[in-house]
Design goal:
The protein is of the alpha/beta class and 540 residues long. The protein contains 23 helices and eleven strands. The strands form two sheets. The chain has a six-stranded mixed sheet with strand order 1-2-11-10-8-9, with helices on both faces. The N and C termini lie far apart (64 Å). The structure holds 6-O-phosphono-beta-D-fructofuranose. Residues 144-147, 197-199, 202, 205, 255-256, 341, 501, 504 line the site of 6-O-phosphono-beta-D-fructofuranose.
């Protein structure tokens, strides 16, 4: 049994299948020839319905991809992950974010410790919400990467479950233009700072935390211990920084998988303990689906296999995420870290250079905004970019009266746009069809046939549509866990370590070497470009 998918004999079968029918696969023809295609290629997972039918796949393709997964021991790899084997082998660590959302009393690893940490964090969050730490109106969360993106994305997505009198602010960038405007509007007496850093060594976070502390004192804040708390697996460093209240977690929680741990404190403060537990419950339901559903109906597995089909056979280099819910506008940023930091790797588990492509570029914007920006390229550009649409059936505008009616109507427009885009990508429009249409604006001198070619669409552009009934803590938890497991599936089949991130280290080390040169102006020994840029930046 092989683990790296290109070493499996099934890989060659897939290559032959791609050459024979995969490359020329037309989604429109597939629908023409199969009235049951939607039913056959739509899947239910907890809280998430997935329509995969607008993808360049059919039953034989899926069968081969599933055979590949079986041959590569995907189930054994998954079980090793969930059991707590040290699958992050370059750091000698288990990867157990799933244990963070297992219910109390479950047999998941570290359940007693996890529940104790969760209870302590939620008790604190509730005390802040009840005003027991003084009347707190603003919480400033300082962290970066996994200690920022997950909590920031979730708090924004669950805004409807938050309170107007308790504002959450997220500061991540070492660029002071991030922190300064946040502090400018705050009253120190009513502000709580949460310093989030797994390692508590991250330059950006420590710099922002120091700046926040000095602002707090200068702004008349008297009780630093009461107004600064930390979430970290390095509570000793947090204490050395002068923070008494620190919520700890473990090295087996990866940064980009940490929103379920005490790093989720701002989420709990924003939406309350009950909603935080619902978020965990939604993720746990998806974990169970991933752990026990046969591969052929296992949604993270199917999405991961399609990702491999597109990346390694079709050669598509990116995937665009279009969430048709304004609350999910930070989802692409969150997914960029989740997927690209996890699977942007060039060597396999044994350190051999990979002969196949790994992580695609993941990018996107909330619908409908993206339609008025880059969708032009998705429809008519020279690259084929699979799109992932996310539609939410029921909105939660929190409006009443005439406004509620108007916003309900806008929601129908939102859904119609979402459906129309995947339809347009697939359907396309031939030049002959375009020729029969009257263009709204057109040059009087331009040949009609030339214009028709400008107005035609190739079509056959693939997309997946995920549908949630509503955006709730539970459905959001399930959605995020779905993405986590899909990233695991592709990483496992590529035979890479999805849980380390050595690629971020070199830049950090060079930054530390350059920093003193920004004071001294010393450019000796630097390459010509860096020396030139440094001089330019320091010139009077
Ligand atoms: O530099 C990358 C990274 O290590 C991420 O993996 C991590 O989420 C982020 O920095 C923040 O790290 P920390 O939580 O230790 O401050």
């Amino acid at each position: 049994m092989t683990t790296r998918c290109d070493l499996s004999p099934v890989w060659a079968e897939l290559q032959a299948h791609f050459a024979a029918s995969g490359r020329g696969f037309d989604i429109r023809d597939a629908f023409q020839g199969d009235a049951g295609r939607f039913d056959a290629l739509s899947f239910e997972a907890p809280e998430v319905f997935a329509d995969l039918s607008k993808n360049r796949i059919d039953a034989p393709t899926l069968a081969l991809l599933l055979k590949l997964a079986a041959d590569c021991g995907l189930e054994a790899r998954r079980d090793a992950l969930l059991r707590g084997d040290p699958v992050n082998h370059t750091e000698g660590r288990a990867v157990l974010h799933t244990a963070l959302r297992a219910p109390a009393g479950s047999s998941a690893p570290f359940n007693t410790e996890v529940q104790a940490a969760l209870d302590a964090m939620l008790t604190f969050a509730e005390s802040v919400r009840r005003g027991e730490r003084g009347p707190i109106t603003d919480v400033v969360h300082i962290g970066i990467g996994g200690s920022d993106l997950g909590p920031a994305m979730v708090v924004q997505a669950l805004q409807a479950f938050g309170r107007r009198d308790l504002k959450l602010h997220f500061v991540s960038n070492v660029d002071g233009h991030d922190l300064a405007p946040v502090l400018a509007g705050l009253d120190a007496k009513h502000t709580l700072f949460v310093i989030a850093s797994k390692t508590f060594t991250t330059q950006e976070t420590l710099a922002n935390a120091q700046a926040a502390k000095s602002w707090f004192v200068a702004a008349g804040g008297t009780d630093v211990a009461r107004h600064f708390v930390a979430t970290s697996s390095n509570t000793a460093a947090a204490a050395a920084f002068g923070i008494d209240t620190a919520f700890g977690f473990w090295d087996w929680v990866g940064g980009r998988y940490s929103l379920w741990s005490v790093i989720g404190l701002p989420i709990a403060i924003a939406v309350g303990a009950g909603n935080f537990r619902d978020l965990l419950a939604g993720a746990h339901a998806m974990d169970q689906h991933f752990a026990s559903t046969p591969l052929a109906k296992n949604l993270p597995v199917l999405l991961g296999l399609i990702d491999i089909w597109y990346r390694n056979f079709h050669g598509f280099t990116s995937r665009s995420v279009a969430a048709y819910h304004q609350g999910l506008r930070r989802l692409p940023a969150y997914l960029q870290q989740l997927e690209m930091e996890s699977n942007g790797k060039g060597v396999d588990l044994d350190g051999h250079a990979l002969p196949l492509a790994t992580s695609p570029v993941v990018w996107g914007e909330a619908g409908t905004n993206g339609q008025h920006a880059y969708f032009q390229m998705l429809h008519q550009g020279t690259d084929v970019i699979p799109v992932e649409f996310i539609a939410v059936k029921r909105p939660n505008h929190g409006a009443s009266g005439e406004l509620a009616d108007r916003l309900a109507d806008q929601h129908r427009k939102l859904l119609a746009n979402c459906l129309a885009q995947s339809q347009a990508l697939m359907q396309g429009k031939t030049a002959a069809e375009a020729l029969t249409e009257k263009a709204p604006t057109a040059s009087a001198t331009l040949d009609r046939e030339v214009l028709a070619r400008h107005r035609s669409f190739p079509g056959n552009r693939p997309s997946t549509t995920l549908v949630l009934d509503a955006l709730t803590p539970r459905s959001l938890g399930a959605l995020i866990a779905l993405y986590e497991h899909r990233v695991f599936v592709t990483g496992a089949l590529w035979g890479i370590n999805s849980f380390d991130q050595w690629g971020v280290e070199l830049g950090k080390a060079l930054c530390n070497q350059l920093l003193p040169r920004l004071d001294s102006g010393d450019t000796s020994g630097l390459d010509g470009s860096t020396a030139g840029l440094l001089k330019r930046l320091l010139a009077a």
